Amino acid sequence: MLDVEELAMRARASASRTEKAGKLDSEIARLIPAAGFARHFVPSRFEGAAGSFAELTRAVATVSASCPATGWCASLAANLARMVRFLPEEGQREIWGEGPDALVVGSLASFGKAEPTADGWLLTGRWPFISGVDHADWALLCAGLPDGQPARVFAVRRAELTPGDTWDSIGMRGTGSHHVHVDGVFVPRTRTFARDEVVAGRPAGAAPEDHTVPLEAVNLLSFAAPLLGTAEGALAVWTEHARNKAANWNPAAPSASLLATTYARTGGEIDAARLLLERCADVADRGPAVTEAEVARNIRDISLSVEMLTAAVNRLVARGGTSNFGESKPLQRFWRDANTTASHVALQFEMAALGYAEGRLWEPGKAPGSMPLDADW
Asked: In the chain, which residues fall in CATH 1.20.140.10?
């Protein structure tokens, strides 16, 4: 069971410092595994929680309502650790042998190259946007192989990485999503797996308790759950502001109708997005029973939720008054964080819509008025 209350409380108190520092406080970073995020998907044979996506989605939203950057890092801590389960058993023991709370970061984007050796690989490359790298124990990094072989994912110790000081986004500043560089680091065969395995959700030699859900059914949840909490946090801040406006009404203040409409519509949209995301998480928890149609619907619903949540936060800011744009005001931070999250290329609704419509409105690969669709869609 994830214990998020203390993490949420501490994250709220340190949110401004986290943003100014451009990374999580060391105390907050330690509380993420202490709250159970790092071990959430770790198998019980390594003393992990073997938890669910439904529980994780709720917990991440709770933390993100206090500090979106902390919620983002907590979400990735759980989801990247889940991918460790695709390593051979010996590699899993190397990472979790001393306990299930190793903090794993990384990326499945292939920005490196790997050269084979007699008993492993030499890994070189530069990977962008590795959130939480300053506090990590391990990183999962994807690289291409010679002769067009399928890309592989490599587990690399944090001490073998060289992070850059490259994260200067106006939103989600506290995630510390810097680039990392690796130059000729040796990775044994026990610490690598084919990227196709995690995409398909079929780890080689999986134990019965291992997750075998397709990546497309679950991957976007790791980004959308923090946005859900961000919107809920923004609504809480705006609501307190609106109560003060209503209590100290003057002729220049917003009308009761405007306040009520903003409050009711925004709350309803956030509730609707939560219901969609909860259904997506329930589908993900079905594992290998998830169908292709459910995968396409999950992608559609998560992307639609992202649009709804971003629009909800933007409405709150538009009707929150000039005073809420002060640098010390949390509403403008939630606004920047929400729009930064929503800009992630994987969350764009247009691509989700194409994937959902294919096979329903037209034959696969034969969208009207366009070139043949990419094979991934």
From this structure: 216-357
Q: What is the mean pLDDT of the chain?
A: 93
CA distance 364 to 95: 41
Classified by CATH at the fold level, domain 5-212 comes out as Butyryl-CoA Dehydrogenase, subunit A; domain 2 (2.40.110)
| Nearby residues of 338 by Cβ (< 8 Å), 6 or more positions away | 68, 171, 227, 230, 231, 234, 309, 310, 313, 314
Angle, helices 53-64 vs 221-247, to 10°: value is 40
Residue with the two structure tokens 């991957």: 219
Q: Which amino acid is at 337?
A: D
pLDDT tens column, 281-335: 999 999 989 999 999 999 999 999 999 999 999 999 999 888 889 888 999 999 9
**What pLDDT, in 10s, does the model give residues 147-158?**
889 999 999 999
Domain with CATH 2.40.110.10 in the chain: 5-212
Interatomic CA distance for residues 4 and 71, integer angstroms: 10
- In Å, what is the CA distance from 255 to each residue of 246, 250, 260, 261, 319? 9, 10, 9, 10, 11
**Is it the case that residue 130 has pLDDT exceeding 60?**
yes
H/E stretch holding 155? strand 152-157
Q: Which two tokens stand for residue 198?
A: 């995690």
- CATH (one of 3.40.50.620, 1.20.140.10, 3.40.50.11030, 3.40.50.2300) for 216-357: 1.20.140.10
Q: Residue 369: left (phi > 0), alpha (psi -120 to 50), or beta?
A: left
Encoded tokens for 11: 């994250």
> Confidence band (pLDDT; 50, 70, 90) for 250?
low
CA distance 14 to 25: 8
pTM of the model: 0.93
Phi and psi of 278, rounded to 5°? -65, -40
d(C-alpha 84, C-alpha 81), whole Å:
5
Structure tokens of 163?
A: 């992070």
Can you tell me which residue has the tokens 């946007």?
Answer: 129
